[in-house]
Amino acid sequence: LIETQQKSMNFSMDQSRALPLAAQQAEAAYQWEGAISLYTELLEEQTSPAQEFDLIKHRILCNVNLGYIHQAAADLDRLLFLSDALEDKELIADAHNLLAMLYRSQGHLEQANTSAQRALAISLELKNEKINADSLNEISIVWGERGNYPEAISTGYEALRIYQTVNDLRGEAETLCHLSFCYYRSGHNGESK
User: In b/e form, how buried is each residue of 111-148, taking b as 16+ CB within 10 angstroms?
Assistant: First the structure.
């Protein structure tokens, strides 16, 4: 009987790990629709506000990548509520970076810059390098979309250096792509490679 209970518990634990892993793998493979479905399923089972925040954050990223701005905005409202309720400055900074991304995707560059600057201020206060890099990268993208490529490149390199320091390969890759685009758009094609 004990052996059967242990096997049942191991299956439940394996199953509880499998779904989040599948969602992360779908997101990493740019299978946004599948990742959204899995994150939604995980959210229905969630009881921890911190885990709910993380799942909603990933669902927002997937929705933004698909151009589903209204769904991302609805999730962002919940995310902002959770970050305030949890009174966790890291989560608040994360939410501001997501808000910046959402504003930017709608062409509201001033609001995007303001949100990213708020996230940067919080991350500097907390000495959180990962959020610092995310904020700098978002600010760099805003500079690039405004056509100020020298500022975009300078800020992008700050983000890149931090991503390399904290060993965030995804952040590093995204920043390198953005820097390449900025070099290309500014006429420095040799540096864009």
Answer: bbbbbbbbbbebbeeeebbbbbbbbbbbbbbbbbeeeb
Rounded to whole angstroms, the Cα distance separating 29 from 149 reads 30
Buried b (16+ CB within 10 A) or exposed e, 12-29: eeeeeeeebeebeebbee
Q: Rounded distance, CA 181 to CA 151, Å?
A: 13
Could you report the per-residue pLDDT of 25-77, keeping only the tens digit for each?
888 888 999 999 999 999 998 778 888 888 999 999 899 889 998 999 899 88
Closest alpha carbon to 112 in 77, 84, 143, 155:
143
Using CA atoms, how far residue 50 sits from 43, 63, 82, 91, 189, in Å, is 11, 20, 8, 9, 44
What are 138-185's pLDDT values in tens digits? 999 999 999 999 999 999 999 999 999 999 998 999 999 999 999 999
What secondary structure letter does DSSP report for 146?
Answer: T
Look up residue 156 and give its two tokens. Answer: 């992008």
User: Do 97 and 67 contact (CB within 8 A), yes or no?
Assistant: no
DSSP three-state, residue 189: coil
Q: Is 132 helix (H, G, I), strand (E, B) or coil?
A: helix
